[in-house]
Amino acid sequence: MRDEILDPHNLVKNREILYRLMIRYVFYSSYLDISNYIDYIRSQLMYDGLEKFAMELSMLVKADQCAPSERLLHVMISGMQTMSEKDKSNTDDVLPGIDLEFEPEASALAPEPHSYETAYVTSHKQACRAGAFSFDGSLVATGSVDASIKILDVERMLAKSAPEDIEPGREQQGHPVIRTLYDHTDEVSYLEFHPKEHILASASRDGTVKLFDIAKPSVKKAHKVLTDCEPVLCVSFHPTGDYIAIGTEHNVLRVYDVHTTQCFVSAIPSQQHKAGVTCVKYSPTAKLYATGSFDGDIKIWDGISGRCINTIAEAHSGAAICSLQFTRNGKYLLSSGMDSIVYLWELCTSRPIQTYTGAGTTGKQEHQAEAVFNHTEDYVLFPDEATTSLCSWNSRNGCRLTLNSLGHNGPVRYITHSPNAPAFLTCSDDFRARFWYRRANNQ
């Protein structure tokens, strides 16, 4: 009923909503619950001229007579208005997203990706293959084959790239790299920030996931370590931050309790992938999570029971799955594969409702590459390996946009977009990570 559109002046519509609520309440509530509110229901029925139903209800619960009143209607209207205002306040700061059911041709609100420019470049001693934005977009992290992790301040990177834009009195911003972490013994394969706290999770081919408290300026080592017997390829935090899903070169997905480090796996072996788990993502509500694998399948799991509820077999014509991303409304799932094609899947039908093509036409894809939405979900971004360029599409109609050179001297192994700003990060085998930003005065 939260989705009902309430008009305080439309009494017919409001009474329809009220009676649906009354029927639902009487049907699903126990006798004790009904007895607490039966007078309100009977009074409303009598006020609306439904004395017969009011009498039958009185006889059913053996209640005394009561006077007609529309108090229940006013209570409902007041409650729904309060709920609507609360929902509005909770979503005022949330960026709109893609919804092809209601806005198939909505106008893009954000600048096209080709208008972004490199604002800062940081280097590692070996290939850079992992990156992440913090939940508020204020920090980025990069990870390398040299086992190091860098954490950079977005505001400082922007200040370095455009000193003329710095506000008076804030000239001494400091170096953009605010933390450098050395606690792995092998390649850092994946990075993700905690959704609520200043904690960074790093996955590595050394078989560990390490949690760093980056709020501490002196942090160098992890304060918590999750150890596996296989190289770890990907992680995804539960939206509450209480759990973390981990994919490894083994076919069974693991879910850990972040606080106790207890490990959970599905109780049904036949539901697991047939090869290593390449990517995992929780939906925004955590009702679902999705996994992709070297076996070419995408699996959708129930977020509570941990059971597989759907398998999209050979989602990319049997090619390995490279990345997955849920839309903000949880209706769709974006996937990329080693076939260089990007699909947008409608989860309720398990069918691709949009296909983004054109990447990989000049050469076969050799390495995994991410497909991501921009911060408004107006565009889909995907690095073309052969040309070291950025392919982008209108997310709603699949129209391919202007190609953008990414300026790297090697394959782009990872791309991630800011959750709330026109900025993205590219990580490459040329040892560098580039921070891209679209300034307001860019045309």
From TrEMBL:
SUPFAM superfamilies: WD40 repeat-like. WD repeats lie at residues 121-155, 181-222, 270-311, 321-355, 405-443. Transmembrane segments: none annotated. GO terms for molecular function: RNA binding. The keyword Hydrolase does not apply. SMART domains: WD40. Keywords: mRNA processing, Nucleus, Repeat, WD repeat. One of its GO terms (biological process) is mRNA 3'-end processing. Residues 42-82 form the Cleavage stimulation factor subunit 1 dimerisation domain. It is found in: Nucleus. One of its GO terms (cellular component) is mRNA cleavage stimulating factor complex. This is Cleavage stimulation factor 50 kDa subunit. It comes from Drosophila rubida.
